[in-house]
Fold this protein.
Amino acid sequence: MTDIETYAKNELEIDPRLLEALVCPVTRRPLTYDKVAQELISPTAGLAFPIRSGVPIMLVDQARKFEPLKA
Amino acid sequence: MSLPPRLFDRSLLAHRLDRAAGGFTQAHFLRERAVEDLIETLSAINRQFDVALDMAARDGAFGRAIAGTPVADKIDMLIEGELSERLSAQQSGSARLVMDEEALPFGDDSLNLVVNALGLHTVNDLPGVLVQVRRALKPDGLFIGSLFGGETLTELRACLMEAELEVRGGYGPRIAPFAESPDLIDLLKRTGFSMPVVDSDRVSVSYEHPLRLMADLRLMGESNILLKRPRKGLNRAILEKASALYFGRHADAEGRITATFEIITLSGWKAHDSQQKPLRPGSAKMRLADALGVKEGKL
């Protein structure tokens, strides 16, 4: 990754106030922000919503599915 | 609990909006008008909003329209939410997300203002969406949204129906049903909003041909998303018949046709103790008859 690309990626950080307001659209429970994978994880729904270019994609059909944790 | 019947294919809507994204500004006049209506309502409200959400931001028209105006000074942070990822990429704001208006991903009491310009006529469960919005608002938070109302495209609806009936001996729903403004005041109250206001704005648009109108609807991403849309498309014979009917009934002196759009703007507040509310029945300190200066009679 070139310096310019690194810079661009940092510029596309998700706004902390947006992050604070977001919940899982299915369970309406809090999300965990995985900064490295650029995902917003809803543990009880078993869904990981991708963040593309700093934009969270909060659509179930775009989310990565995994075995949900027991609530 | 039974869910209301689903009318609209939301994934088809996302697809239509994605497809319309390239030329979205070409048929922008109705959205601009709707955004103006929202801004007009907001201008009259003397209030600061910490966190605002545009829940059907499309290409970011609202965010761009308020930039540099007094309304922008009232909003500390504007979050732009949009169903179509391609439209979302055209927005200029710094806080964006892709979301479905029917599954609002915001926590309770997290927003001070929610706006929605011309998105509400495409949701399946409008009461459910309004309840979600009210929950996401902080107490004393404001919602302003707009949708196409019952007067919208009445001319085209009738002409298509009659033409298809004549050519095929039957017809399918080509244009979605739209809400009527008197029902919406009631809906805002039922979904728990205080001080509800509903306002209707009729827009007459002149076109050289009904096919140009239909092309514009596609450019707006507003073509048919009804789940029960007919599988058989409109053929040439139907379109020609419908166009002839349209010209026959709604042509002006210059031979252009008129299409009516009704933009309904609704607003309501999440309840808060500081808001004005009606007094309890029987709590009056003065007799109405005295106030009116008349003698009280028996009923």
